[in-house]
Design goal:
Layout: H1 2-14, H2 16-25, E1 50-56, H3 64-79, E2 81-87, H4 91-104, E3 108-112, H5 116-128, E4 133-136, E5 151-154, H6 156-169, E6 175-179, H7 185-197, E7 202-205, H8 211-224, E8 230-233, H9 236-249, E9 254-258, H10 262-270, E10 275-278, H11 281-298, E11 308-311, E12 313-316, H12 317-328
Parallel strand pairs: 1-2, 1-3, 3-4, 4-5, 5-11, 6-7, 6-8, 8-9, 9-10
Antiparallel strand pairs: 10-12
Helix pairs in contact: 2-11, 3-11, 4-5, 6-7, 8-9, 10-12
Signal peptide: 1-24
GO molecular function, one term: carbohydrate binding
Family: Belongs to the bacterial solute-binding protein 2 family.
Length: 332
């Protein structure tokens, strides 16, 4: 219990900066009544309208990114921002989207750094053009060198170590950590963190854009690996597919996860998934857009050169019911 609470305290402390930004910088200026439809309340800023491109490595069908986008859209509504959301899981094409935004003359870019080397040239083009950049979700150890002035996300190695510690404390010895996108630095760091605490952790790569392949690959692995006692999914849709694979294989392995959606939260409540590690993606989207607005309106740079952590926090059966309501609203 004390271990779990310590991670909650870490996450709560880490998100204080974006929370304060919301309360301190909302404007009482006028707006059209309909401007707040679907938002979180409060008046729209009376600052000059600005344009922001949010460019992620989201793969089709991954519901995690719906939550990130919802946070970004709410910040945009509050901050009088015109938001353009773009995504591509392939690093080269994500770089092209960044260059496209630069050519359009946007006022700010928020970008995920899952494959930072592929984005370096495009991000230099942005910073050379005087466009402020923030990063989110992936790349907490590379954001500064790539020109972003702050980063919103979880420390993925730390999150993986938290999972490893939790599994070790509960007696698990032979995890399988399933990576759905090879070369994604955040996912690799998660599994590396688990392995640092449970040395017999095995890494299994699957093709995350093909859930049929994910299910068949995990099923075959479990059928060939009788010693596996827990399988770790690195995203809610993949974990739900892994649950099916465990059933297909007739395995006694338990299932753990990273990230959250409403269906996964319900599986934790029901005891089908032992826990997940929530990085609070809504805050990542919200914080990234709000930070760009803060930078334009006053030259503010949140984070003091350090990443703003939105996690990790472990959600297990004891705490999942508390977050299920928010997950159903699409904000967890």
């Amino acid at each position: 219990m004390s271990h779990k609470l310590s991670w909650r305290k870490l996450a709560a402390a880490a998100v204080m900066v974006p929370a304060l930004a919301l309360t301190a910088c909302s404007s009482s200026g006028g707006r059209a009544p309909e401007a707040n439809d679907g938002g979180g309340g409060g008046a729209v800023a009376d600052t000059e309208r600005m344009s922001v491109a949010l460019i992620t490595h989201a793969a089709p069908g991954d519901t995690f990114w719906d939550i990130v986008r919802k946070g970004a859209e709410e910040a945009s509504a509050k901050d009088n921002v015109e938001l353009q959301y773009l995504s591509d899981p392939e690093g080269g094409r994500q770089a092209q989207l960044i260059e496209q935004a630069v050519d359009q003359g946007v006022d700010g870019i928020a970008v995920t750094l899952a494959k930072p080397d592929a984005l370096a040239s495009a991000l230099k083009k942005a910073t050379d053009a005087g466009i402020p950049v923030v990063s989110l979700n992936a790349g907490e150890d590379r954001f500064s060198e790539l020109g972003a002035f702050t980063h919103f996300g979880s420390n993925e190695k730390l999150a993986g170590e938290a999972v490893g510690e939790r599994l070790a404390s509960e007696g698990y010895e032979h995890p399988i950590c399933v990576i759905q996108e090879q070369g994604h630095v955040g996912l690799e760091n998660r599994c590396a963190g688990v392995k640092a605490k449970v040395p017999d952790t095995e890494i299994l790569y699957v093709q995350g854009t093909d859930m049929t392949q994910v299910e068949s690959t995990v099923t075959a692995k479990l059928q060939a690996t009788a010693a596996a006692d827990v399988v770790i999914g690195l995203g809610a849709p993949f974990t739900l597919t892994i649950l099916k694979a465990v059933g297909n294989a007739g395995s006694d392995a338990k299932v753990a996860s990273f990230d959250m959606n409403a269906e996964l939260a319900q599986k934790i409540v029901d005891g089908d998934v032992i826990f997940t590690v929530d990085q609070q993606p809504w805050l990542q989207g919200y914080g990234a857009v709000d930070a760009l607005w803060q930078n334009q309106r006053g030259g503010f740079e949140i984070g003091g050169g350090q990443p703003v952590l939105t996690g990790p926090t472990i959600v297990d059966q004891e705490s999942a019911q508390q977050v299920l309501e928010f997950a159903e609203q699409g904000v967890r």
